[in-house]
Every structure is written in structure tokens, then in C-alpha cells.
Design goal:
The complex is a heterodimer. By secondary structure, chain A is α/β, with parallel strands linked by helices. Helix content of chain A is 25%, strand content 21%. In chain A, a hairpin with a 2-residue loop joins strand 1 (24-29) and strand 2 (32-37). Chain B is built from 1 helix and 8 strands. The chains are: A alpha/beta, B alpha/beta.
């Protein structure tokens, strides 16, 4: 290996580490999004307690069935993740899985993932599929197990603790060369679903692929998400959660907070680093710092949500 | 020598002769036509491949990430191909067949059948 290559890979490793580390606590209050170091938050027990009851935990990109070098034991890291969630002092009311439950949409992978997720102490599980879950032509494997909530459409909504949750599917109408797509039928449904809701209702929207464009050459975005955003802008607190890119990327736009979750299976490179979003091999001691879950807590009043990312390290 | 062994040997001789014929045929058209499209680094390695009608095209995924081979018009569709897995489709009708990967829709290529 040339010196240039060593320098290049070290620079990449350092960049990736910046996304790992001890984790960061994100507090969203009145539209102001303030990052707080997780280690500091852990020391400040009273401060953490003030954050209130955990509303839900987001698990993403479990990729059951993956067995390559980037993580030969995805079952083990999902087990660790579930142990972390089950060990939370206060159990979250819900679990949200933002897709890529399986790696290859195989029945055995879905069955194993289902058995593992059933070990969560919190039993209310809401899911959306990733493109890895829908590679069978009819999407039968996903919908036969998780289709009930949406009548096999993939999109649905529900309410909990005054928060309105909207689950969307953006991995079905892929066009060659394109980004993820929601489609007009789903967008019309969202408009009808949100119509008549008070603008003070906190909204949580979740889908697998990012609902804003992070990196178009790798398809990290949703082509028709602008139509969705125009419907969400009138609300005072909107949290948009996605998976797909196996790393945390976030932004705030008006009252809308966008956040992508880590995977529990394997990290992916930063946008544009390498030929594509392939599983990223890192030193084994680095891996747990790059995998994890996101927990979302209601802060004092339902209009404020706090996002807290925890790694397996 | 058992009857079975004899038949197996005769089959081998026949196969060897057939292979010789195929090898010697300058146009390579005697046996069923085959073409290969490796998939590597999030690309179909032939973005436009022209084959004769009747050719079977085989895709092999050489990435650590799964890929699919999905006809834009619904003519053919693979399941998710894990590392080193293959998908084959025989093109019987002349035409232009664009296809893409449903997991990474930026991956696009075309088979032209003459």
C-alpha cells in the first residue's frame, strides 16, 4: 500500500469516527435543536430525569441475513441493541423500526428478525420496509408479516400521548436512475390524514429512505418529498426520522427536524466516499461505536421532543 | 466396467467433442449463446451489451452489497443477489431491454437483442 493510500484511509477512518464516539443527546424544545454530549447528560442525572418518559425507540437497518466482513454477527449486535433498550430505566411506549429489517427479503430472515424483536420488553412495534425488505416481486414476505397496520399499502398513521405518527413507504415505486418515491396516491392520503389536525399537534414522520436529499448520486433522498414537506410546514413540531444510510445525518428546517439513525448491523461510508454505499469495514473495536439506536423522549410538554442517540460501545 | 460408468464415459467423450466444435466455430454460434455481465462497485460492468436473439445473459454480483436485475418494462426480474450469486435470462426476442437495480436505482444498463 502506498503512503498516499494509508493517509487516505486514515483520513476516512477519522472522518467516520466523528460520526461515532460516545453519542450525542439532541434536545428539541420550541423548535430549538441543541446537541448535548451524551456522557455529560449521563453524569447529570437530574437533567436526564427532567427529560421525562421515553416516548419511543427507533431501531433501523438490522439487515438480518448479512454475514460479510463488515459485521459477521448482525444477530449479536441486534441482541446487544435489544438488551440496551430492555435495560432502559423507563421503558419506551413504542418501538419504531425504520426498515431494512432483513438483508435479502428471505422468509427465514424475516422469521429470525421477528423472533429477535419479540424479545423487546416494549411490545408495540411499528415498522416501514426498506428496499432490502421488498426485493421479492410481490413484497409478500414483508406484507404477510407487517402489512396489517397499513392494509398492505405500507403507509398508515396512529396517535400516542398526543403525538401524531405518520409511517410512509418510499421504496416501492423506484424508477431506474431515480431517488425514493412516495407517489401521488400516498401524498394524497397524507394530505387527507393531516387535514383538520391542529398545527400544535406534534408530528413524527418516519420512512426508510431519507425524506430530504442527502446525496443524490447514491439515491439518498426521496424525489417527491417536497410535496410532503409543504404539507408538514404549518405544524409547530415535526420530527422526520429515517434509516437507510447507516449513520447519523441531521438538519433543521423551520420547525422540521430531520434525523437519520445508525444501523444495528454495519456502518456505511460518508456520502461519496468510494464507489457506492457498500458495507464499511472498520476495526472491530470501532464497530460498536458506529452502531446504535435513537430514543425519543417527550420533554415536559408534548410539543417538545428530545432525540437521544446511543451506540453499542 | 459397469454399464453406468460406460455411459458416463461416453457422455464425457460426447461433451468433449461438443466443446471442441464450439471452440473451433469462429462465430461461436453453434451452441446456445451465452453472455456475462459482472456486477462490481455498484455498476453493471457492461452498460450496453448487444447480443443475438436466443442468448442467455448471466449476471454475477461481485459486491459485498446485494443487487438486483430488474427490467424497466417487466420482462425479467431477479431476486436479491447476494455476493457471488447469479441470475440468468434468455433473450428470445429482438429489442432494447433497459434494466436497473431496485436496491440502488442509480445502477442502470441495457441489453440490446438483435
Amino acid at each position: 500500500m502506498s503512503d498516499d493510500k494509508i493517509l487516505h484511509s486514515r483520513r476516512n477512518a477519522l472522518k467516520c469516527m466523528a460520526y461515532g464516539g460516545a453519542g450525542t443527546l439532541f434536545v428539541l424544545a420550541g423548535g430549538v435543536f441543541a446537541p448535548v454530549d451524551l456522557a455529560m447528560a449521563a453524569d447529570d442525572k437530574r437533567g436526564t430525569a427532567r427529560l421525562g418518559k421515553p416516548l419511543f425507540v427507533q431501531i433501523s437497518d438490522t439487515h438480518i441475513g448479512f454475514n460479510k466482513d463488515a459485521n459477521p454477527d448482525v444477530n449479536g449486535t441486534l441482541t446487544q441493541t435489544i438488551d440496551i433498550v430492555n435495560g432502559m430505566a423507563e421503558q419506551p411506549a413504542l418501538i419504531i423500526h425504520t426498515g431494512d429489517i432483513t438483508h435479502l427479503s428471505k422468509p427465514a430472515e424475516f422469521d429470525l428478525a421477528g423472533q429477535m424483536l419479540a424479545r423487546l420488553r416494549t411490545t408495540e412495534l411499528h415498522t416501514v420496509p426498506g428496499e432490502h425488505d421488498t426485493t421479492d416481486a410481490t413484497v409478500t414476505e414483508y406484507f404477510s408479516r407487517f402489512g396489517k397496520a397499513s392494509n398492505n399499502k405500507g403507509y398508515y398513521s396512529f396517535d400516542h400521548a398526543g403525538v401524531h405518527f405518520v409511517a410512509l413507504i418510499n421504496v416501492l415505486q423506484f424508477k431506474a436512475g431515480g431517488l425514493g418515491t412516495l407517489g401521488q396516491e400516498q401524498l394524497d392520503w397524507v394530505a387527507a390524514d393531516l387535514k383538520g389536525r391542529s398545527s400544535s399537534t406534534p408530528i413524527v414522520v418516519f420512512a426508510h429512505m431519507p425524506l430530504w436529499t442527502i446525496y443524490e448520486p447514491w439515491g439518498w433522498g426521496t424525489g417527491d418529498s417536497d410535496q410532503l414537506m409543504s404539507q408538514l410546514r404549518r405544524f409547530g413540531s415535526v420530527t422526520v426520522l429515517n434509516g437507510h444510510i447507516h449513520q447519523i445525518v441531521q438538519k433543521v428546517e423551520g420547525n422540521i427536524t430531520f434525523h437519520t439513525a445508525r444501523s444495528t448491523a454495519y456502518p456505511q461510508p460518508l456520502a461519496g466516499e468510494g464507489p457506492g454505499p457498500a458495507p464499511l469495514k472498520v476495526a472491530s473495536e470501532q464497530l460498536p461505536k458506529m452502531l446504535g439506536v435513537t430514543s425519543v423522549t417527550v420533554v415536559k410538554h408534548p410539543s417538545s421532543l428530545a432525540l437521544n442517540d446511543t451506540t453499542l460501545a | 466396467m459397469s454399464n453406468r460408468n460406460y455411459r458416463a464415459r461416453r457422455m464425457l467423450v460426447a461433451l468433449a467433442m461438443l466443446a471442441t466444435i464450439v471452440t473451433l466455430d469462429p462465430a461461436g454460434a453453434a451452441a446456445a449463446d451465452q453472455a456475462k455481465v459482472p456486477i462490481k462497485d455498484f455498476m453493471y460492468q457492461s452498460t450496453s451489451l448487444t447480443v443475438k436473439s436466443g442468448t442467455t445473459v448471466t449476471w454475477t454480483n461481485n459486491d459485498d452489497e446485494p443487487h438486483t436485475v430488474i427490467s424497466d418494462t417487466g420482462a425479467f426480474r431477479s431476486s436479491a443477489l447476494d455476493t457471488n450469486e447469479t441470475f440468468s435470462y434468455k433473450f428470445d426476442k429482438p429489442g432494447v431491454y433497459p434494466y436497473h437495480c431496485s436496491i440502488h436505482p442509480r445502477m442502470v444498463a441495457t441489453i440490446v437483442v438483435e
